[in-house]
Each structure stands twice: as C-alpha cells, then as structure tokens.
Task: structure prediction
Amino acid sequence: MTIKQLQYIVTTAETGNITEAAGKLFISQPSLTAAIHEIETEYNITLFHRSKKGIEITPEGDEFLGYARAVLEQTTLMNERYSGKILRKKHFAVSSQHYSFAVEAFVSLLKSYGGKQYEFHMRETQTYEIIEDVARLRSEIGILYMNSFNETVIRKTLRDHNLSFTPLFRANPHVFLGKDSPLAKKDKISIEDLAPYPRLTYEQGGHNSFYFSEEILSTLDCDQEIVVCDRATLFNMLVGLDGYTICSGVISEELNGPHIIAKPLDLDDYMEIGYILPKTIHPSQMTQSYIRLLEKN
Result:
C-alpha cells in the first residue's frame, strides 16, 4: 500500500467514475484500475462494485475509505508542518443531533481556523447516522445524548463501532415552544399540559427505534405527531401550529431568532449530552479545539 494508492481510491470514490477519476489524477484508466486492484488483492477486500453505469463503493470499501482519508489527512499535516507550505484546503466535519450550541462552536472554529481555503461540514442528522459518520471517519466528532432509557442501546452501538462517549453536561428536560404559545406564560410545564398540542420530533430514517429518538419520552402516546428532518422546519411549526418538542433547553437567540423559548418540563429525567470519537485515532488539533469550544458554549 502506498500514499498514492490511497489518493487514487479517495478520488475514485469522490467522482464515482473510473474515467473521470483517472483524468483528475492525470493517469490512464488501466493504471488506476490496476492500482485499485492491487489494494483489493493485498487486503482481500472489494472496494467498488463495477457496472455499465459506473462504480459504487461497497460497505467494506466505505470503511476502508474512512481510514484512507485519515492517513492522507495526517500525511498532509506532517508535510505542511515540515515544509512550511499550505498544501490543501482545511477540512473538518461534525455530525450532531440538533443543538444550537454545537453550531455556535462550529461557527467559532471556522472563524478561528478557516483561513482563505476550507471545506467544513456541519451535519445535523439522524442519531444512527452520527454514529456511522464518526465510525467511518466521515466526521471527526459526533454529538448526541443519552439518558436512563436509551443508554444501554446507545452504549452497545458505540462499542460495536469502537467509539467512546465523553459527557459535556447534563440538562434537565425542557420544552421548546413558540413565544406566543398558550403555554408560554407557564413557569413549568407538565406532561398533561402538552396533551392538546402537536408534538414535533426528528425523523430517524431506517433506525427509527425509540432508543435512537432525539427526544426523550419517545414512547409516550401522542394524538398529534409531526415528524420533520431539519431544525428550521421544526421551529417554523412550533410557531405556526402551537406545537412543542422536548429538548435540552439550550438555545441561541442569535442563531435561532427570538420566536422560540424554552420552558422547564415537570419531569424527573435528564439528558446527558456529550461527544463521540473513534477509540483508535487520536483527535486532531482542530477536533480538540472544537471540543474546547463545545465546553465553553
């Protein structure tokens, strides 16, 4: 295995086409195909399925790609450190449940480290996708919560993916509401108070288990249920439909506007919010900086 072969594989995966990848790499198509085949033979794996329509990365190829990107990242950092030259755009990726403090930390990191050339990814996504993104090294760090209900399942899933969980803080459950909601004047909201109003939750895709829900009390029956995919839609429906969602209570008016408020939920429960990392890879300097910004926010 060589660094050049890893570059070939990453470029091929990104383009999804052998001919296009060979053109980007300034090599012949047979040379690229031979280089990929050498890696597949060396490690006894299949990186790509090939067809008349092009290529598609295999599950084991996707895993290999994560390690290849990590090796190339470290190689580039070492070359920049000792050559004194900036050789590429800065890259950084976060996968997270929908938390404004994670976005605030991301913005602060970008302002500090972005420079003139960068490619940063902020993926607010489904819980299982967060775990897979970090395990496959598509993201350097993931942010999610655990509590007494989902902890056993989440911790097992993290172990299966060789990931660690580090708590940031423990939050009491709150309710997000529109500021003009009929419940907005209450100092504390009960479960019974919520019954007449639509509950908003985040879509969890193929892993739509109660244990992967982003909201606590996911097993609680609700007559009016609205499932959404993004934070802007959820906030618009909180305001427009007098809906609610159960959350940590941490909100940024600067990022989310003045129309959403958080009220304590009268419930003996908690959300322990933290970050996940690969156990076998030391976090980069940028990842460590992002963690410090998370702790600060």
Observations:
- The chain has three domains: 3-71, 83-169+273-296, 171-270.
- The domain at 171-270 is CATH 3.40.190.10 (D-Maltodextrin-Binding Protein; domain 2).
- The radius of gyration is 22 Å.
- The chain has a mean pLDDT of 88.
